Amino acid sequence: MKWTLLYRYWYWLLYCQTLLCSTDTQESDYQESDSSQTDSSQTDTHLISSGLMQCGEYSNEVMPNGQCRLMATLPQLEEQRCPDMFRCTDEVSYWLHENEERKQQMQDLKETISELQEELRNHRHRIKVLELQNEEKNGQNSSLEQRFHALEQIYEEANTLLHVHGSLIYDMQAQIRNLTLAVERVRRNPGCMINIVRTSPLLSTRDTLHPEVQHIRNCPIDCASLYYNGVHRSGIFAVVPSLGSTPVEVYCDMETDGGGWTTFQRRQDGKVNFNRRWTEYKDGFGDLHGEFWLGNDNIHYISSQGDYCLRIDLEDWNGKHKHALYQNFRIEDEENQYRLHISGFSGTVEDSFSWYHDKQSFSTPDTGNICAEISHGGWWYHQCFFTNLNGIYYKGGRYSAKGKNLLGPDGIVWYTWKDSDYYSLKKVSMMIRPRTFKPRLSP
Fold first, then answer.
1. Backbone angles phi, psi at 73, to 5 degrees
2. pLDDT tens digits, residue range 370-380?
3. Where along the sequence do coiled-coil regions lie (predicted)?
4. pTM for the complete prediction?
5. Of 52-56, 285-289, 290-294, the least confident
6. I need a labelling partner for 181 at 20 to 30 A (CA). Which of 127, 334, 375, 417 fits?
7. CA-to-CA distance for 43 and 61, rounded, in angstroms?
8. Which runs of consecutive H residues, i.e. helices, occur in 189-237?
């Protein structure tokens, strides 16, 4: 900025000299004698000095056309200042003042621009940092997501392996049980150890809580064989049907009509729900000391190992007892839907079972049989029933389709007892034994 002022100074100096040059030209027109001695192209040289300091020089000459030509040499100074040659005019002072203000404004602008540039660099740095952080977070999220999917896949594989191992363990346990039973049969042949799991409710509590272990000559295949081996008390025992592969706990009635009965159904208080699925009727459910269904597989195994008869005991809500006896009874296997074979009726109640239900397949509400759905139980239905001993337990006996909003009768029904489908019995039991059974025989 110092050199700029210096150049402005020299500019005004040259301007003033030009004016002087023009005045000299005019004066030369009036001085004829002197002009002949002075050539028009003569050059005057003036030095500008201040004390001992050489500040610069300039020269002027008159051109042939009467104009003044001014030439100036600027000083080559660094930290020195040339003296003022003349007083500046108001206009020069104004522009010098304006120049100082512009210089200050320019300096302020430079500082402002510098600050803005620094702030811009800081913002760019922050943006870069945020971008790096965002990329790092995205990378972490992507890594976590990949790890999560990998863990999910590992979990699914482990779960599959767990199910496979569970199935293998279950199969191995079943095989071990079968082998154990087979070994025990061979080891104890011709004798067999039986466990009286529970005894008759008529016995004391102490006897009920302490099951008996008794040795018999042959492994029991039903309650009749237990009777023949000297077991004459009613209770829950383990039998091994000849067609089955595992022991089965059954309730043996050793009192009714000479004993030897294997009970497979009982209704007495309504505590057990008989509206069950096919698999439940297949495997059995309930409590052998209360209400229960032994299971269609077990009924098939026992009834198919010889000629069996069926006894059904009935009781109404007035305490009246009746029974029905059938000389021939068996059911087929699951492949044939446990088809019923029953005949040879006798008893104290009119038959409502064999004549209508013989040769019928077993069905439950989940098999799609409309009668089973309406009757809410599993039975050998045939458009739909005259006997339904696995129906709903209605206390008091009498019920109506209108009052219960039913599609049809669904109680524990033996039609010929009351000549009605809307009377539900209080107690029912179904039990079988070999047709050739003779009570009180010695082993």
1. -115, 120
2. 999 999 999 99
3. 99-161
4. 0.55
5. 52-56
6. 334
7. 5
8. 205-209, 223-228
As a whole number of angstroms, the distance between CA 416 and CA 353 comes to 10
Q: What distances in angstroms separate CA 69 from CA 16, 19, 61, one per listed residue?
A: 13, 11, 5
Please enumerate in sequence order all residues whose Cβ is within 8 A of that of 31, keeping only pairs 6 or more positions apart, or say none.
none
pLDDT in tens, 184-235: 655 544 445 555 444 444 444 334 333 444 544 467 899 999 999 889 999 9
Q: Is-contact 72 60, C-beta < 8 A?
A: no
Within a 10 A sphere around the Cβ of 200, how many other Cβ atoms? Answer: 18
Cα distance between residue 115 and residue 109, in whole Å: 10
Q: Which CATH superfamily is domain 223-434 in?
A: Gamma Fibrinogen, chain A, domain 1 (3.90.215.10)
* Amino acid letter, 32: E
DSSP string, 26-94: HHHHH-HHHHHHS-TT-EEEEEEEETTEEEEEEEEEE-TTS-EEEEEE----SS--PPP-SPPPHHHHH
| Residue 119 in tokens | 């702030």
Nearest to 389 by CA among 397, 398, 378: 378
Enumerate the β-bridge partners of residue 286. Answer: 292
For residue range 142-166, what is the model confidence (pLDDT) as tens digits? Answer: 777 788 888 888 888 888 888 888 8
Q: Which tokens sit at 181?
A: 């039973």
Phi, psi (rounded to 5 degrees) for 107:
-65, -45
What's 184's DSSP letter? H
Cβ within 8 Å of residue 372, ≥6 positions away: 363, 364, 365, 378, 379, 381
If 0-12 CB within 10 Å is exposed, 13-18 middle and 19+ buried, where does residue 143 land?
exposed
